[in-house]
Amino acid sequence: MGTVHAKAGENITEVPDFGEKRVFNEPPETYSFKEIDLQEVKARVDRINVDGLSRTKNDIVEDCIKELFKAKDFQDVLLKAHRARVKLDELGCFKNISIFIDTSKGTQATPEGLEVTFNVKEHKRITGGVSTHVGNNEGALLVGMRAPNLFGRGGEYKWNIVMVLRKLATLTLTTSVFQAQSEWPTSGYKQLERGLLVDLGFYSTPLLKHNLQWEANIRDLNVLSRASSFDVRVQSGLSLKSALKHVLSVDLRDDLIFPSSGSLFQLTSEVAGIGGDVLQGCLSGGYMSNINNDMKISISDMYFLGGPLSIRGFQMRGVGPHSDGDALGSQAYWSAGMHLFTPLPFRPGKGGFGELFRTHFFFNAGNIGNFQLAKDNDLLETLKANMRLSYGLGVALRLGNMARLEVNYCFPHSFDKGDQTHPGIQFGIGVQFL
Amino acid sequence: MPLIDKISVELGAQEPWPKDVKLYQPYEVEQILLPDNANCLAVQAFLKMCHLDFQVEPRPNAEAMSPTLKVPFIKAGRFVTAELEGIVQFVNGKGISLTDKLDNEQKADMRAYMSLIHSVIEVAELYICWVDKETYNEVTSIRNGSIYPWPLNYIQNFAKRNQVIKKLKALEWYNKSIEEVFQEVENCCEALSIRLDGKNYFFEDNPTELDALVFGHLFTILTTPLPKSDLANIVRQHPQLINLVQRIEKEYFKKETRH
After folding, report:
1. How many domains are contained in chain B?
2. Assigned domain for B133 exists
3. How far lies B82's CA from each of B85, B102, B118, in Å?
4. Shared domain check, A299 and A152
5. Cα–Cα 20 to 30 A to A384, which of A13, A62, A250, A344?
């Protein structure tokens, strides 16, 4: 922690966002400021006010902020206030939290006394909205509704469990009703999905995030044109999908799009952190099988591989079985990717606009098929047979804090007869990447 | 796209009738409804009259698979063609026709009668299935919903019923009483009976697609058990039509069972 310059006599410090640690390097010629070592300034928190509570129960807020009373000096006050703010934020009850620190006044004030005020703004009981959702090379309109902080306890009614797991556990319930129309020219079909998704997210330990999801979905599949393959046509019509999903994730990354350190374990994992360049590896896989013969797996459920966001150097869904040029998908796949990210050559726009860009070198591998998990043949051999490889280089751009845009030059290295390759320049935009 | 479709039909026409032609239709026992069954049977009769080989392939989602979203449809090689008129055209393109010997006036006549059947008997069948409460509750809703899991069957019945009612409203049939509907069918049967005039088929001794269409609808009406049997009773009052139906059945459908 560096020293912070404060104007003499000024005693109100607003900490709007203390998350970024700033070090001021003042040139020594400036004499208008007097240096104060905050650790030397004794302080005692006399009072803590929390403004803006209406539904949230006092006890969970008290738990978050009581540490602040133990602060001994001003630096400690600042750090602890920040920590309290983070805790309050993690409750998921508030959409806005700001902190004011003032000297305490009144009859009970001590000479070094401070008064800390948290201004919070609670979430509405139910929040809803219409948003546009951008997926991998597809868009969807999303109408959503959320009921955060349902019972005034950070959305958590199993309070006993939370006590054990520290206060970090929060429960968020998200319900969304969606209708999505997607067209897959590479598979020769279009699909209208109408459905309901209920998502229950909670942390079992501070880093282990669980998402329990239930999705009911009516899918209306239609062929795109008369020219679509009959194998796709056979699967047209309505189907109902009701799925229960459990997503377990540990996200230690410092940034969602261009991580420089940390890792995410979900189905993909990213390992990073070598100097200024980042080496990123991903591995993902999937397997499905019929639970019983009454349940059908249709083309909407299949796994597809290939495209600018999965195995680069192939057409979208270009890996795997095709019928009359339409991708049919398979019941199992694996894919792996290795990226070497570096800043742009010669660092144009360093520290600003240029930070949105990265050059990257990549190497993708994967395989898709209806692998039979039989005992007599080696699984590894099955997975390795017909493995597809591609490599290349390109420029990636971060869009917001959400999506990534890539322009790559790809070299498909090994592929199967039925595959549709896409050597040369390939353009991709999406949220999830290999 | 339509241009490409046309070209592909033209190209397809040059090939001979393939061996693995399949006729896709809904399941006859559990699923199919009166109007769909009539149309499927009409196409089967037509193909048999042309002595063309085909296999019936029942599929629960046949309707969704069809390029016009109506059953039946055939798959010949790479080409997919739906409904009687489309299939007749497709078959004619291969140089096979039942109407070679007819003059233009007769052809126009035939088309007029076919459109009469589509606009009266077929619509009346839709009315009985979807508007008549008793038939809808006891037959239509159960059969139409049979291929979907709960709750999709309710949603789908509701959607399909609305769709049919919309069509009937546009044709100004929805507000008719059931007696008026039966009267329309009666008039239509009368007209057909007069046109038949004691001949074996509508146009002398050889069947045409009109015969196939009449057979499809009347045979289905006669053999489908419904809570209201009025439609079948109306058809039974016309012995000429009954004879035609029996003749076609014997000629083209009974042979198959003897094999």
Report:
1. 2
2. yes
3. 8, 25, 15
4. no
5. A250
